[in-house]
């Protein structure tokens, strides 16, 4: 008997698909898995971070408050900060903050058109935004919105979400993970890196409107704020920080009217002038 090794079938394990097509399917599958992991990790980490006791968050953010407090302010800026803090205290009293929570308002003399809430109940209000608001009611609306973010623990949630996303992405790329997860840990209090989603913005708006209606008897200040910001567009919009993080326009104004109707709030009412310490910040009007 003669034994021979059979010739292998050269078509075994041979695909008729183009290798680039197979690679594309593989890449799409991996991307989908990573995207799902990022979304799940971000969601659950954000929810968990928002449940950390506020005292822990405040201790973590002690350096943030210290850096703002140690800034040298001009007498004009110091008076503006004091006026903002007095206004914030009046609003916070109407907002039923959780036990043990307090909010500290800081003032920045920069021309940046923005206000932001960050970790530890720290709120920063920029001169550039103050200069565009014509009434105490409008300033109070912005302050109440940022205080609402702190009350609802949105800064902690955003930080937890960012860290979790960074951890997941570090599995794919260590550099990408550091850029997404590391920077927010180190800089969240000093820069507006804590982004809030649309649901969080709507929730903060609703809390703010309730507070403003309770303190002022109407929500006309909110209409002024959204109208003023809605007019900022074109090249200037790229330099306006608040436009990058807050949904604006007709949708927001419509929401004010809808909530006013549902809650029985007056849409308009007596407008209070800016406190003198804030009024002096507005640019002098040119003579006609």
Keywords:
Zincin-like, 61% helix, elongated, 3 strands, 288 residues
Any chance you could write out the topology, listing elements then pairs?
Elements: H1 19-49, H2 54-60, H3 62-69, H4 75-93, E1 104-108, E2 115-118, E3 122-126, H5 127-130, H6 136-151, H7 154-172, H8 174-187, H9 198-216, H10 220-230, H11 234-237, H12 241-245, H13 250-263, H14 276-279
Helix pairs in contact: 1-7, 4-6, 6-9, 6-10, 7-8, 10-13
Report on this model:
By secondary structure, this protein is mainly alpha-helical. It has a domain at 77-153 and 191-279: Metalloproteases ("zincins"), catalytic domain (Zincin-like). The protein has 14 helices and three strands. Strands 1-3-2 form a three-stranded mixed beta sheet, sandwiched between helices. The longest helix is centred in the N-terminal third of the chain and has 31 residues, at 19-49. It is elongated, with a radius of gyration of 26 Å. The relative contact order is 0.13. Mean pLDDT is 76; it is low at 41-45, 163-170, 173-193 and 234-245.
Question: Mean pLDDT, nearest integer?
Answer: 76
Please tally the helical runs, counting DSSP H or I stretches of 4 or more residues: 14
The CATH C-level name of the domain at 77-153 and 191-279 is: Alpha Beta
| Shape assignment | elongated
CATH superfamily of the domain at 77-153 and 191-279: Metalloproteases ("zincins"), catalytic domain
Order of helices and strands: HHHHEEEHHHHHHHHHH
Distance between the termini: 116 Å
- Provide the CATH topology of the domain at 77-153 and 191-279: Zincin-like
The side-by-side strand order for the widest beta sheet comes to 1-3-2
Biggest sheet layout: 3 strands, mixed
Q: List the uncertain runs.
A: 41-45, 163-170, 173-193, 234-245
Broad structural category: mainly alpha
CATH structural architecture of the domain at 77-153 and 191-279 = 2-Layer Sandwich
Strand content range: under 5%
User: What share of the residues lie within helices?
Assistant: 55-70%
Q: Quaternary state, please?
A: single chain
Rounded to an integer in angstroms, the radius of gyration calculated over CA atoms is 26 Å
Structure summary, number of beta strands: 3
């Amino acid at each position: 008997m003669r034994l021979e090794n059979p010739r292998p079938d050269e078509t075994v394990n041979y695909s008729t698909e183009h290798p680039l097509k197979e690679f594309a399917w593989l890449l799409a599958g991996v991307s989908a898995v990573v995207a799902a992991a990022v979304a799940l990790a971000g969601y659950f980490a954000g929810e968990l971070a928002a449940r950390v006791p506020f005292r822990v968050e405040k201790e973590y953010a002690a350096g943030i408050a210290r850096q703002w407090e140690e800034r040298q302010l001009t007498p004009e800026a110091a008076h503006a900060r004091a006026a903002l803090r007095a206004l914030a205290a009046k609003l916070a009293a109407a907002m039923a903050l959780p036990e043990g929570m307090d909010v500290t308002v800081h003032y920045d003399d920069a021309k940046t058109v923005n206000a932001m809430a960050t970790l530890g109940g720290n709120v920063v209000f920029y001169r550039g935004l103050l200069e565009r608001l014509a009434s105490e009611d409008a300033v109070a609306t912005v302050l109440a919105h940022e205080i609402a973010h702190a009350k609802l623990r949105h800064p902690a949630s955003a930080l937890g979400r960012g860290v979790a996303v960074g951890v997941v992405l570090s599995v794919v790329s260590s550099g990408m993970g550091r850029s997404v997860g590391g920077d927010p840990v180190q800089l969240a209090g000093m820069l507006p890196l804590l982004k809030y989603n649309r649901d969080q913005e709507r929730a903060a708006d609703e809390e703010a409107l309730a507070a403003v209606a309770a303190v002022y008897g109407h929500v006309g200040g909110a209409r002024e704020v959204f109208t003023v910001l809605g007019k900022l567009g074109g090249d200037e919009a790229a330099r306006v920080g608040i436009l990058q993080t807050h949904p604006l326009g007709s949708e927001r104004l419509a929401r004010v009217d809808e909530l006013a109707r549902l809650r029985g709030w007056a849409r308009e009412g007596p407008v209070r002038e800016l406190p003198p310490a804030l009024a002096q910040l507005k640019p002098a009007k040119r003579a006609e």
